[in-house]
Amino acid sequence: MIGIVNLCKRFGEQTVLDHVNLEIRPGEIFFILGGSGSGKSVLLKHMLGLLRPDSGRVLINDQDITAMPEEQLLRVRAGAGYLFQDGALYDFMNVFDNVAFPLREHTRLPGAQIRERVREVLVSLDLKGVENKMPAELSGGMKKRVGLGRAIILGAKILFCDEPTSGLVPIRSRDISDLIRQVARRLNCTTVVTSHDMRNAFRIADRLALLQDGRIAALGTRPEWEHSANPAVQAFLQ
Amino acid sequence: MGKLPDRIIAIFAEIGQAVYFLGEVLACVTRGRIRWTQVLRQIYEQGAQSLVIVALTALASGMVLALQGYVALARFGAKEYVSSLVALSLTRELGPVFTALIFSGKAGGRIAAELGTMSVNDQILGTRAMGVDPVEFLIVPRLLACCAVVPLLTVIAELVGISGGYLIGVTQAHIPAGFYISQTIKSVTYVDFFSGLIKVVFFGLIIGWTCCYQGYRTSGGSLGVGRYTTQAVAYSYIFVILANAGLTKLILSVWG
Ligand SMILES: Nc1ncnc2c1ncn2[C@@H]1O[C@H](COP(=O)(O)OP(=O)(O)OP(=O)(O)O)[C@@H](O)[C@H]1O
Ligand SMILES: [Mg+2]
Q1: Nearest-CA distance from A94 to chain B in Å?
Q2: Hey, are the CB atoms on A74 and B132 less than 8 Å from each other?
Q3: Partners of A210 in the β-ladder
Q4: How far, in Å, CA of B119 to CA of B106, rounded?
Q5: Would residue B110 count as lying in a domain?
Q6: CB-based contact A178:A204 (threshold 8 Å)
Q7: Which domain holds residue B175?
Q8: Residue B171 Cα, ligand 1 centroid: separation in angstroms?
Q9: Whose CA is closest to atom 8 on ligand 1?
Q10: What SS3 class is residue A160?
Q11: Is residue B1 part of a domain?
C-alpha cells in the first residue's frame, strides 16, 4: 500500500504539488492523469523517494519513506520497479546487461541463472533476439519494453511507470499498456502509472486520479469517471 | 544575470554543493565502496584515449626545449647542460602541467559529456531508482581513475619528452650520447621528480572532481550537456593552473 499525506512540493516560485492526498491499494493498477506539466512525474518520483517533499509524507507499507536516509531508501527501491519515460537504459551497456543489472546488483545468482532469468523476461516482453543490441539501436517502444523488463526482473512488489505510452503510435501504446497489465497481474504488484492517454488508461486502470493545479481534482474507478459530473473530469475527458 | 549580492551567494552555494559532492565521493571511498572492475575500465578508457596526444605533445616539447636551450646555452658556452635543462623543465613543470591540461580537454570533457548525457536521460535517476548509489557506481570509478591516470600519463610524458630532447641534443647539438644520458640522470633528483608527481596527483583529483561534478549536475537536455561540458573543461583548466601556482610555491618553500 502507498499512502500520500499532505504532500507539498515547490520549485522556486512554482507550486507543483499542493497538499496531495492519495491512498493506493495493494495490487491495484492506479493511474495518475493530468495535463502536461501538471506534476505527474514529480508526484511519481516522490513515491519512491527520488525527490524530497517540502512537507507531507509518503508511506510505503506504513513506512514513512520521506524520513529515511538515502542509504535505507536504496534498499526500499530495490523492491520496486520504475519505468522511465524513455526507458533510462544505460547507453554503455547492451540490452542484456541492462536487464541483468538489478540481478547482478541485488542478488548473488550465478551467471547461468541470470542469463536464464533475463531470457525469460525478454521473451515475455516479446523482445527475442535483441540481447546484444545497444539501447541506441532500439526503437522507442522497444526501449520502453526493455525498461519494463529491467523494472520487473527482481519481481517488483511495486511498479511505477512514467508515461509508458507517450511518443508511441496508437497500436504500440495499446501493446505496452496491455503488457503492463499482464505484468502487474502476474507479479500481483501495486502499479502506479502516469499518463495523459485517456483511452489506454481506461483500458487497464482499476482506479484513476486527476492531478490538476497541484491537487487531486478527481478520484475513482472507470465507471465512476465515465458518469462523473465533476467539471474537471468532464473538461479532461474532452 | 542577477544583482551582485545574489551572484555572490550563488557562487558560494555552488562551491558548497561541489564540496558536498566530493564529500559523498570520499565517504564511498573510505567505506571501501570501490568497484575495482569499473575503476580499471575507466583507467583503460581515459588512459588509452589521452596517451597518443600526450606523448606527441611531450615529444614535441622535449625537442623544442632542447633546440631552444641549445641555442641559448651555447651563448654562454654551456651547451652540455641542455640535457639538464630539458630534464628539469619536464619533470618539475612542463610534464605535469601539459599532461593535466591535455587530460582535462580530452578525458575530462569526455567524463563530463558522458555523465551529463546520463543525467539528462534519467540514467542517473534510474540508477537511484534501481536501488544503486550512482556516486558509487558512476562517479567513484571515474574520479579514482583520474587520480591514477594523470600521474601515469605524466611519467610517460616525461620519459617521451626527455627522449625527444635526447634526439635533438645528440643529433643537432652533437652532445655525446653517453654524456647526455648520464647528465640527465645526474641532474634529476628525487625531489624534482616527486615534487612534479605530487602536483599531478592533485591535478588528477581536481580534474576528476570538476568534470564529474559538472557532468553529474547537468540538466537542460543536449544544450545543457554542451554547456556543462565546456564549463567542466574550462574550470578544470583554470583550477589546474591556479593549483599549479599554489602547489609550486608551497613545494618550493618546503623543498627548495
Ligand atoms: N527538477 C525540477 N526543477 C524545477 N522545476 C521542475 C523540476 N521538475 C519538474 N519541474 C516543474 O514541475 C512541473 C511539473 O513537472 P512534471 O514533469 O511533473 O510534469 P508532468 O505532469 O509529468 O508533465 P508531462 O506530462 O509533460 O510529463 C513543471 O512545470 C516543471 O517545469
Ligand atoms: Mg512527466
Answers
A1: 14
A2: yes
A3: A33, A218
A4: 20
A5: yes
A6: yes
A7: 33-254
A8: 67
A9: A42
A10: strand
A11: no
Measured CA to CA, the distance from residue B48 to residue A137 in angstroms comes to 26
> Distance between CA A218 and CA A198 in Å, rounded?
14
All residues at 6 or more sequence positions from A18 whose CB lies less than 8 Å from its CB, including other chains: A8, A213, A214, A215
Task: Tell the residue number behind the cell numbers 511495486, with chain if given.
Answer: A158
Its ipTM equals 0.93
DSSP type of residue A93: S
Helix/strand/coil for A192: strand
pLDDT in tens, A4-48: 999 999 999 999 999 999 999 999 999 999 989 999 999 999 999
Residue B12 lies in a domain: no
- The one-letter amino acid code at A73 reads L
How far is CA B165 from its chain centroid? 22
Tell me the ligand closest to A36's alpha carbon.
1
Q: Which residues contact A125 (CB under 8 A, 6 or more apart)?
A: A145, A146, A148, A149, A179
Q: Which grid cell is A156?
A: 517488483
Span A159-163, average pLDDT: 95
Angle between helix B140-171 and helix B109-120 axes, rounded to 10 deg: 160
Measured between CA atoms, the residue of chain B closest to residue A80 is B130
Nearest ligand, measured from the Cα of A12: 1
Domains identified in chain B, total number: 1
* Cell numbers 575500465: residue: B41
Q: What is the pTM of this model?
A: 0.91
CA of residue A88 to ligand 1 center, whole Å: 17
Q: Counting atoms of ligand 1 from 1, which one is nearest the CA of B219?
A: 1
Q: Where are the beta strands (DSSP E) in A163-206?
A: 190-195
What is the best residue among A8, A41, A215 to mutate for testing ligand 1's pocket, by most ligand atoms within 8 Å of CB?
A41
Please give the single-letter amino acid code of residue B166.
Y
Terminal Cα distance for chain A, rounded: 32
Mutate to test the interface with B, among A11, A41, A47, A50 (most CBs of B within 10 A): A50
In a domain, B16, yes or no: no
Find where cell 542577477 sits. B2
Nearest CA in chain B to A82: B129
pLDDT per residue of chain B (256 residues) written in tens, 0 to 9: 567 888 899 889 999 999 999 999 999 999 999 999 999 999 999 999 999 999 999 999 999 999 998 888 888 888 888 888 899 999 988 999 999 999 999 999 999 999 999 999 999 999 999 999 999 999 999 999 999 999 999 999 999 999 999 999 899 888 888 988 998 898 888 888 888 888 999 999 999 999 999 999 999 999 999 999 999 999 999 999 999 999 989 988 887 6
Contact A50 B132 (CB under 8 A): no
In this predicted structure, what is the pLDDT of residue B255? 75
Q: Which residue has the higher pLDDT, A233 or B111?
A: B111
pLDDT of residue A56: 95
